[in-house]
Amino acid sequence: MRWTELEAAVADAARHPLKEVFSREPDRLARLTLEACGLTVDLSKTILDEGVVAAGLALADEVDFGAWRAKLLSGAVVNPTEGRAATHSAERGVGSEADVKAAREARTAMKALYERIAAGDFGAVGRVVHVGIGGSFLGPALVIDALPASGPVPDVRIVSNIDAVSLERAIEGADPAKTLMIVVSKSFTTLETRMNAESVRDALGLPAERVIAVTANPDKAHEFGVAPGNILGFAETVGGRYSLWTGVGLAAALSAGWDAFTDLLEGAGEMDRHFAEAELAQNLPFMAALGDIAYASILGAESRAVFAYDERLRLLPDFLQQLETESNGKQVDRNGHRLARPSSPVVWGGVGTDAQHAVFQMLHQGTHLVPVEFLAIREPGHSMDRDHHRQLIANCIAQGAALLAGRSFEEAQRETPDEQIARAKVFDGNRPSSTVVLPRLDARTLGALIAYYEHRTFSFGALLEINSFDQMGVELGKNIARAIASGETASLDLSSKALMDRLTSG
Ligand SMILES: O=P(O)(O)OC[C@H]1O[C@](O)(CO)[C@@H](O)[C@@H]1O
C-alpha cells in the first residue's frame, strides 16, 4: 500500500526542521525549482524531500495517475457520476480529434460574434454587462482584472450575486442604447443568473438584440428570449469552473482584445503539453499537487493560503477557491467509497503586501499549519519608478524567509531583556511556503498559470482517486433555498425557521 509508504516518508521528513534542509541536501534548491511555460515554481521550502517525492511517484503508479491523465487529455470519461469527459484542454488544442474540432468550431462562432460587436453590428457598445456566477464569473473576472483593457469594449461590468446591490452598481450610469448584456450560464437554469439577467433587461429596457447568451443549453437560452443568432454554445463536457476558455470568456476577450484571448489559450495549451509530457518529478502541476497532498491529506493542514504579490492577480485566490474546493472538496472517491484521509483544504488568500497587515501575524505565529504559496512577477505592472516594485518583491521574499527561519528565544532576548516580551517575539519558523515566479504578466503567462492550477487540482484529485469534475455538494442548499423562497418552511429546523421569520416577516 503506497499510501503507507508516503505517510512514513512525510513523517520522516517532518522530523527534520525545514530550516535545516538546505544544509542537509545541497542540491535541494536545484531539484525542487521547476520551470516550464514561463513559470518557475520553487518548492524547496516544502516537505518534498527525496523520500517524499519517491513515495509520491510510487503512489502515482499505484493509482494509475498516468492512465487518468491520459483519459483527461484524450476526452475519455473522468467524471463517472455524470458520465462525462472533461474537455477544457481541447479548447486549447489538446484532446481528441473530435473534441478539438468541436472546440475550434465553437471558437470560430465566438470570434464571428466578437467581430460583429467590434464592427458595430450591435451599434456603439460603450458597456458590456456580463451576468454569471461561479465558474461563469470567476475566470472571466480574473482575466478582465489582470490584463490591460485594450479590446473594443474596455468597460465591462460583472453581475454575479443575487443581492441586487451588485447589479445596481453594474448598470449605474449605463446608456441602454450602448449597453450589451452577455448572460453566461452553462446550464442556463441557475437562479441567480436568470433573475439578474431579467432585472438588467427590465431595468435598462434592453431589446432581445442587445442580449447575448453563452451556454451549453441553447434551448433554455432561446426560451429565455435570446435570439438564436446571439447564442454561443459550448460543450457539455467543459465544466463550469474550467470554462473560461470557451465563449464564457467573450467579455474577457472584448475587454483584453482577441489577440490576448488567443494568447491566453496558447499559454494554457503549452501548459497542457507540459502536463502531458514532462516526467512526473519535473511536472509542475503534479509536484505541486504532491506537496498539497502531503500537507492536506497526510499532515492534516486544513487550509492553504495563496498570496499574489501583484495587484493584477488580486482575484486569483477567489478563482482558486472555487477551482480547488469545488473540484476536490469531496467525501467519497470516484467509486463512491468514503475517503480514508482529508480531501481539499480550504483555499484562501489575498494580495501582498496588504495581507501582511492583516493575516500574516497568524501565519507567522498562529497555531495552525498553513502552507503558504506566494506569486511574484519580475516585471512590474506599472510605470512608477521610486522603489515600489523592489519593496513589493522584498516583502514577498521576506515572508517566505521569515516563515522558514523564524526567530529563537535567544535571538529575541538579544533584542529585549524582558523575558515575557521575548517569548512573545519568538517565531517557531519551519513553516512551509512555495513561490511561483513569472517573468511578466501577459495573456500567455496568465493562460499557463491558470492551466497549471487546473492540472494541479486534477492531480490532487487523481492521487486521492476523487472525481474532481462533479459538484453534488451544492445541490442540497439550492433545493432548500428554492423551497424556502416559495414559502415552504414547515420542514425547517426551529432555528432556521426563526431566522427566516426574523429576516423576512412583517
Ligand atoms: O454556469 P451555471 O450553469 O450557471 O453554473 C454556475 C455555477 O454553479 C455551480 O454549478 C455550483 O452551484 C458551479 O459549478 C457553476 O460554476
Structure overview:
It holds the Pfam family PGI. Catalyzes the reversible isomerization of glucose-6-phosphate to fructose-6-phosphate. The protein has 21 helices and eleven strands. It has helices at 2-15, 21-24, 28-31, 50-62, 65-74, 97-119, 138-146, 164-171, 191-204, 218-223, 250-256, 258-277, 284-298, 316-328, 360-365, 388-405, 409-415, 419-424, 443-464, 475-485, 494-504; strands at residues 33-36, 39-42, 127-131, 156-159, 179-184, 211-215, 231-233, 303-309, 346-351, 372-377, 433-438. The chain has a six-stranded mixed beta sheet, with helices on both faces. It has a five-stranded parallel beta sheet with strand order 4-3-5-6-7, with helices on both faces. α12 (258-277) runs parallel beside α19 and α13 (284-298) crosses α19. The chain starts with a helix and ends with a helix. 47% of the residues are buried. The model has no long low-confidence stretch (mean pLDDT 96).
In DSSP terms (H or I, runs of 4 or more residues), the helix count works out at: 21
Beta-strand content bin: 5-15%
Low-confidence stretches: none
Number of E strands = 11
Based on secondary structure, the structural category is: alpha/beta
Largest sheet: 6 strands, mixed
Distance between the termini: 61 Å
Taking all residues together, what is the mean pLDDT?
96
Helix % is 40-55%
Q: Quick one: overall form?
A: globular
Rounded to an integer in angstroms, the radius of gyration calculated over CA atoms is 24 Å
Unique ligands = 6-O-phosphono-beta-D-fructofuranose
Strand order of the largest sheet: 1-2-11-10-8-9
